[in-house]
Amino acid sequence: MSVSRSVSHKFGTILRDWLLIRSGSIAGQAFLSVCRQRRHYSAPVSGSVPSAKQKYVPTTGTYPKGFLVSGTHVGVKASNTRFPDLALLTSERPASAAAVFTQNIFQAAPVTISRNMLEKCSGEGVRCVIINSGCANAVTGKGGLEDATSMAASLNGLLPGFSSPDSTLVMSTGVIGQRLPIDKILKAVPKAVSNLQNTHDSWLTTARSICTTDTFPKLLSMTFTLPSSPSISYSIAGMTKGAGMIHPNMATLLGILCTDAPIPASTLQPLLTHAVDRSFNAISIDGSTSTNDTLAVLANGAAGGQPVTSLNSEDGVAMQRVLTDFTQQLSQLVVRDGEGATKFVRVRVINSPSFPDTKLIASSIARDPLVKTALYGKDANWGRILCAIGYTQGLSSSETVIPARTSVSFVPIDGSEPLRLVINGEPGAVDERRAAQILAEEDLEILVNLGGGGDGTGTEQATYWFCDLSHEYGGLPLAWIAQSKGKD
User: Fold this and answer.
1) Minimal CA–CA distance to 293: which of 250, 260, 328?
2) Active site residue: 252, 259, 294, 406, which one?
């Protein structure tokens, strides 16, 4: 069967099954029951974290000074009767801010409002971030823009020294094409303000409140120092959400980072852009870029010390390293929660003449459905990896990939010797039993060595993180229908 016919058959099958469910027939209800029973890797309906994912949920944290957060139940979706779905984050003092947004042409109303706000204030004087889950407020026209503006203005008079909607970032996530229940949200804002705290539980509740199809809240925090102020312990915390529609550019649905280090917006924006290019823009679940992707960082300087005003200074270099490492750790939690995923895969491409080309090759492998399904099936099919390398689009030179110099290996997580699948363009003597043992693990690294390219001198490398593609991913649209039928 050709690729086009295979894709058509897949969508035809999903449409058939959707019509069967919507029919309300006995057969449809029976099929619905089967769909529910097959959800092996997704969050239980109870909202509890699956046992396999509990290790990723922190039990303690160290959070930046001067920030308060809360997660409050609104019921943005009528079916949500108890889980928090309105997140609020505030800085007790004006903060610098930077953000990166989706490259999707159909950008949601909160993306437009937040981008315009940051441009207007040049990233300075930001005080709040307000986020709802359950409704994306995307493709909602003028009314959606008005709703997003109302969310930003809803904090006027509720916080000490705060009176301007031009100091608030707005984010939304959920179903596309539906208007927000804005009256319900605005009515809940005073309660969200009264819930503000800086405890671990409040941060965790806030992280839960931005989740949609996530199986666990994604929250990290850490401390660090800077060379100019070695006696000061700075903190950075971040939360993100996402399990589907994950691929650059951006590559997460929503994320917010906070630090008490003193960093002006003029420095913060390039720091974030560099970090995101090597983290959130280097992950993939399904190759789909959302309409709402937004990642923002706030720095309020509450811990004191010298401002980080130069990227090339000792503080600038150290801060770049901290932020890049932190965003990589946070973004990897998104991959670990990929919809229907059973594996966490790192693909590392090394010894390339060009970093942009190297990243394109890693991305090509990470989004290839044949590679992803082979990994799910525990099949050491290195031909699919070579194929993905070979069809990579946009390479700057035909000398980037030389087949006779290209090698591919599986790197086990236990640190043992890599399994060499392809050596200088020729098949290796693959031990199938060892390959099966490596692929039985949840974590895997694919190492691609380009041998330096055409002249053999290339040393650039890039890393991508992705997951496999299981049976469940294909059934997720049916599960969403099952969950919402008769409720929303």
Assistant:
1) 250
2) 252
- For residue 39, give Cα distances in angstroms to 355, 449, 474, 482: 39, 37, 11, 12
Rounded to whole angstroms, how far apart are CA atoms 452 and 183?
Answer: 59
Mark out the alpha helices in 195-313 (DSSP H runs). Answer: 200-209, 265-277
How does the average pLDDT of the chain come out, rounded?
A: 86
Q: Which two tokens stand for residue 367?
A: 């989004």
**pLDDT tens digit sequence for 128-147:** 999 999 999 999 999 999 99
Among 133, 91, 98, residue whose Cα is nearest residue 119: 98
In the predicted structure, residue 195 carries a pLDDT above the cut 80: yes
Identify whether the C-beta of residue 63 lies closer than 8 Å to the C-beta of residue 203.
yes
What length does the chain have? Answer: 488
Asked whether 298 and 257 are in contact (CB, 8 A), the reply is yes
252 is catalytic: yes
256 strand-pairing partners: 239, 296
**230-234 long-range CB contacts below 8 Å, 24 or more apart?**
232/303, 232/304, 232/305, 233/303, 234/64, 234/259, 234/260, 234/261, 234/303, 234/305
CA dihedral of 296, 87, 280, 48, whole degrees rounded to 10: 170
Quickly tell me which residue has 């509740």 as its tokens.
205
Tokens of 300: 């309020």
* Phi, psi (deg, nearest 5) at residue 354: -145, 130
Q: What tokens does 382 get? A: 């290195």
pLDDT tens digits, one per residue of 268-303? 999 999 999 899 888 886 555 555 678 999 999 999
Cis peptide before 80 (omega within 30 of 0): no
